Amino acid sequence: MTEGAGGGTVVERLRALGPTVSVGMLTADLGNLARDIAVLEGTGVGVVHFDVMDGCFCPMTTIGPPVVAAVRTSMLKDVHLMIEAPLRKVAAYVQAGADLVTVHLESDRYVRRVLVELGDLENVNDPGRGVARGVALLPGTPVAALEPVLDLVDYVLVLAVDPGWGGQRFGPPTPQRVGELRTLLDEARRDVLVGVDGGVTRANIGEVAATGADVIVTGSAVFDGVDPGANARFMLDALARRDVLPA
Ligand code: DX5
Ligand code: ZN
């Protein structure tokens, strides 16, 4: 039974899964994507992460709506848009089956409008789910910059790496930034899910889990070309242990 199954809105499903991993498919075997997705589903992972890069917002070009649509899965589709000017593009990703769409605060001067538009779109997998609205922060953007959009988001993704360069290490300031975000959310009385993305490995998943993040994105440490299933199970177990470890 895939972890991501179950009823309710996307936000309710993510809360029910939490803390959980969202596995980045960028380093999966794209020539055998259905096989690799099935491996993930078999481990109980409930969320698959699609890194969309346009070569403008960051120096890499990856995938678009056709690939998101091509993936058949019961996992939640978590689409991370590292693209310029997403306002007129988010609808295509929702149409492709996105359950959660995360746009970068730095990517559109009208980011509030993007979030309002996302809120008006119907989830094509199941209208009852709704589409969860995320905003992401590059490592160089102060957490306080989120304040103007906190009323419109369901999810905030804190990047631990600069997108578009492979093999980067998890940014040391990230745990403190997650703490600053929690404080900002508490002060704003906003119950928003928190995610961390980039450079998460077997070696540091415990440290990252200890930040209290609800969703931890990990890609190349799972799809390492050796044993994605074992890697995914290791990450899920590490998060499960967080709940039983003393605070
Ligand atoms: C930034 C992306 C990340 C990345 C995953 O590059 O948003 O999701 O692909 O990073 P790793 O492979 O380090 O988990
Ligand atoms: Zn990502």
Can you characterise this structure?
The protein is of the alpha/beta class. It has one domain (10-239): Aldolase class I (TIM Barrel, Alpha-Beta Barrel), CATH 3.20.20. The chain has 8 helices and 8 strands, in the order H-E-H-E-H-E-H-E-H-E-E-H-E-H-E-H. The chain has helices at residues 10-17, 33-43, 65-70, 90-95, 111-120, 174-187, 205-209, 228-244; strands spanning 20-24, 47-53, 76-82, 100-104, 132-137, 155-159, 193-197, 215-218. It has an 8-stranded parallel barrel with strand order 1-2-3-4-5-6-7-8, surrounded by 4 helices. Strand 7 (193-197), helix 7 (205-209) and strand 8 form a beta-alpha-beta unit. The longest helix has 17 residues, at 228-244. The protein is globular and about 45 Å long. Residues 1-5 have low confidence and may be disordered. Bound molecules: D-xylitol-5-phosphate and zinc ion. Zinc ion is lined by residues 24, 49, 51, 80, 197, 217.
